[in-house]
Amino acid sequence: MEKKINHFDAAGNAIMVDVGGKNLTERIAVASGKIFVSGEVYSTIDKGTAKKGDVLGVARIAGIMAAKKTSEVIPLCHPLPLSHCALNFEMLPEESAVKVIATVKTTWATGVEMEALHAVSVALLTIYDMCKAIDKKMTLGEIHLEEKRGGKSGDFKV
């Protein structure tokens, strides 16, 4: 069975999906991604010695702000009343990487997957921005939805 892409009308025009008739339910999404860095950048982040300040602290705030502003950046996203947004970081020395994990919650008529993915993306970009003076060869990747709960389409987990 082919799944329908719901951001287009019958004529193929892009539309904002009408969620007016949907029930307000708790929606949760978890997304993650990684930034792969040099040993020097990794050490700087891990030790908290970046000249621009607390890299992960600033990235956390940037990610939260991004989640709250998703509908201003992604054209067909609904503005959502977020009840929770948290960003966590895992230092991965064996990969010389930092993993960002965003958890976003709302009680509303549509999900928060895009908010979680946007939060991760902006947090990773912020890490890049704060460390680019040390080394510009950082790579962002593996950005994906790990889990989603609630809503008509049901639960999803990688």
Description:
With 158 residues, this protein is an alpha+beta fold. The protein has helices at 39-47, 55-68, 70-73, 113-131, and strands spanning 25-36, 82-92, 97-108, 139-149, 156-157. It has a 5-stranded antiparallel beta sheet with strand order 2-3-1-4-5, covered by helices on one side. Strand 4 and strand 5 (156-157) form a beta hairpin. It is elongated and about 50 Å long. The model has no long low-confidence stretch (mean pLDDT 93).
Strand content: 25-35%
Q: Please state the average pLDDT score.
A: 93
What share of residues is helical? Answer: 25-40%
**SS content category:** alpha+beta
The shape is: elongated
CATH-defined topology: Alpha-Beta Plaits
Which ranges are low-confidence, i.e. pLDDT below 50, for 5 or more consecutive residues? none
Largest sheet: 5 strands, antiparallel
The tally of domains stands at 1
The strands making up the biggest β-sheet line up spatially as 2-3-1-4-5
Order of helix and strand elements from N to C terminus: EHHHEEHEE
The CATH superfamily title: Molybdopterin cofactor biosynthesis C (MoaC) domain
**CATH class label:** Alpha Beta
Distance between the termini: 21 Å
- Strand tally: 5
CATH architecture verdict: 2-Layer Sandwich
Helical segment count: 4
